[in-house]
């Protein structure tokens, strides 16, 4: 019988329990020390104190290009009473200083005469002289034990006469992928099969942490086979990581395997994502083992939360820490009480504040980590945060990059994605970060000072106008509206339109499964308007309550056969090789504060919208017109 969760142990308690289990079973506290050439030691951790073997510099030397003199010979020199010295020596920076001299005068302060060198200022003893041991003195402590070596450190060691250093060897991480459905990278996947991307990612994380990493062959869902591989891995590895099978499902064997091969310290940690973590040890030889959930975001964060601190501990070093900053939340962020909730966010500076926009939170949404600029932890005892709340964010990207980020919140459109790529190609320091919350959500975020731009195509049923009536209500006169594109909206259908759908009137037909956009989305407003005009009850449309946040997600659902149709843009249909039934052509606009139109940050975007090449690329997507692209509508 598979092991259930022991409990949802708080992260700090889980760390302590795992540490106690490792000590009790005799897992090594440190990896061994090795001696390596000083030039090969960068990234390694010192295994003993490093003492200087010689002074640097090893002699008094000139700190400037000029002349070496006796300071006593310059006494009384001034602009009105210059002194001419005849006993001096021309020196360059770094030259040994003769014992006869005790100061250096910079070349530009020396006036050569036929009699010698005229000086118009007295110099004190040891001016511009690097004394013996100024940088390093022989026998001084250069670096303590437990110091992770940087390029400047090894340079200082070499200057101090060291040719080898005693360092901790790189810990070896052995990664074991499991699962009947897992296939090697590059394999042609059939329905139900999954590429082994987790091993690739975890091995890269281990190497980035300064460790060696090896990945075993994929092991099928057979507890005995998995146990054998775990035992074999523990013979060599300093940490064994077992991927998948850590929850309470039918084929989740990790806790059972760890118990068979050693002992389970913790099964189930109060973190999200990453909840079904297994922490334990393997015996004979005793080594730590970490059972990692199969969802990719859970796997990546489990490495950060549990593996990275252990690996640093094995080297005798402090865990590497990312810098952090404070930010305002762009929207409400609910959270489950009782678990530390690790939320991925995009960041940008709007006015004087850094704004954090939460990304999709599913444990399988790997792109949320790809696009994340930071990580926000909602503590277990907090039920979330309101929009605008100031929070602490761990940075995944530098603040200088974040300051050059254009924050766009609102409706999704492929043109924004294309613009983001084009801006980055032109200037690697410019980022356009889009968050898809619907047109209305974007306008509210702009009103609240949480973004630079709001993408909107929101139809007002009362007037038949797009966006402008909502701008008037929410922002008043303090708003500018820039036309991005006109675009075709319609029903996305399977190739060949097998159900013969002709338009909105066909949506209530029996057997038609619809996939909708979220409330507040302009596409949702368009659909509701069209249904109201036809007096069609939304409750008669199967799937009306099923919501997706992007046009591409709607197209993906149709492509996968999970829905028969959904309202979206032609470009999304084309991206998935689907057919399209036109419904309307609509404007899609960028809304911003009037004063921000001339903001330097946005200048590259306006230049891009004026580019004929960019407009041609947009129209090549299909279903777009750039006739008014870049035009100020208000």
Automatic annotation (TrEMBL):
Cofactor dependency: Mg(2+)
GO cellular component entries: cytosol
UniProt-listed Pfam families: MoCF_biosynth (PF00994), MoeA_C (PF03454), MoeA_N (PF03453), PBP_like (PF12727)
Keyword list, A-Z: Magnesium, Metal-binding, Molybdenum, Molybdenum cofactor biosynthesis, Transferase
Pathways involved: Cofactor biosynthesis; molybdopterin biosynthesis
GO molecular function list: metal ion binding; molybdopterin molybdotransferase activity
Top EC class, one word: transferase
Sequence ranges assigned to domain MoaB/Mog in this UniProt record: 174-313
Catalytic reaction(s) noted: adenylyl-molybdopterin + molybdate = Mo-molybdopterin + AMP + H(+)
GO term, biological process aspect, one: Mo-molybdopterin cofactor biosynthetic process
EC number(s) from the headed UniProt entry: 2.10.1.1
Alphabetical list of PANTHER family matching this protein: MOLYBDOPTERIN BIOSYNTHESIS PROTEIN, MOLYBDOPTERIN MOLYBDENUMTRANSFERASE
Function comment: Catalyzes the insertion of molybdate into adenylated molybdopterin with the concomitant release of AMP.
Family: Belongs to the MoeA family.
Name of this protein: Molybdopterin molybdenumtransferase
Source organism per UniProt: Streptomyces bathyalis
